[in-house]
């Protein structure tokens, strides 16, 4: 776990120095290696075994959260037939490692010229319908041990779907940096409309 924490701190520092573009181009193999290494440690395995629950449709088990939101590690569990709604990770990097089950990741990139619409939606309290154009990326079929990535400019919007009738779908997210209400790193949810258009929605409308 220490290597994973150190590497996340290093990536965060370089993100602060170089901006979000850094997160599109850095070598994420060391972070991947340290994630797998951490998952092989007995202490983390025991913590997961003792605390993972499936009481809600979507459950979150915190592993490591930094008070300054520089990074966060958390495990998400989707109960059978549950979809995690389409959401964004503005200026963030996310590694998702599948711990159990099978699921589908749908990914989207918002058209560059429509990004300002998302930013103004995040920063205003009066909400009216906002629609953006986006490109849908090929869906990924994920199974235990598979890894997928999200960066500021690659698959920044994603949704996870558990199509199983019986089994949960469980994945670990390594998030650098984390959401932060004091920056532009605020979450927005989206709903698919016709013709590759996405409607922005509020969390309380979900
Ligand atoms: Fe996400």
From TrEMBL:
It comes from the Eukaryota. Keywords: Iron, Metal-binding, Oxidoreductase. Pfam families: PCO_ADO (PF07847). GO terms for molecular function: metal ion binding; oxidoreductase activity, acting on single donors with incorporation of molecular oxygen, incorporation of two atoms of oxygen. PANTHER family: 2-AMINOETHANETHIOL DIOXYGENASE (PTHR22966:SF61). This is Uncharacterized protein.
């Amino acid at each position: 776990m220490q290597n994973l924490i150190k590497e996340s701190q290093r990536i965060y520092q370089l993100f602060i120095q170089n901006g979000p573009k850094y997160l599109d181009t850095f070598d994420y193999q060391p972070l991947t290696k340290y994630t797998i290494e951490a998952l092989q440690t007995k202490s983390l395995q025991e913590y997961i075994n003792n605390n993972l629950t499936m009481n809600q449709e979507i459950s979150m088990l915190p592993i490591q959260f930094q008070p300054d939101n520089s990074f966060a590690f958390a495990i998400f569990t989707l109960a059978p037939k549950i979809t995690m709604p389409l959401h964004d990770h503005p200026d963030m990097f996310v590694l998702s490692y599948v711990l159990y089950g099978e699921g589908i990741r749908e990914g989207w990139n918002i058209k560059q010229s429509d990004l300002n619409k998302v930013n103004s939606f995040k920063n205003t309290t009066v909400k009216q319908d906002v629609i953006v154009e986006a490109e849908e990326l090929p869906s990924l079929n994920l199974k235990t041990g598979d890894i997928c990535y999200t960066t500021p400019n690659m698959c920044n919007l994603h949704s996870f779907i558990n199509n199983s009738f019986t089994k949960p779908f469980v994945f670990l997210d390594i998030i650098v940096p984390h959401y932060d209400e004091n920056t532009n790193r605020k979450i927005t949810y989206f709903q698919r409309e016709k013709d590759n258009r996405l409607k922005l929605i509020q969390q309380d409308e979900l």
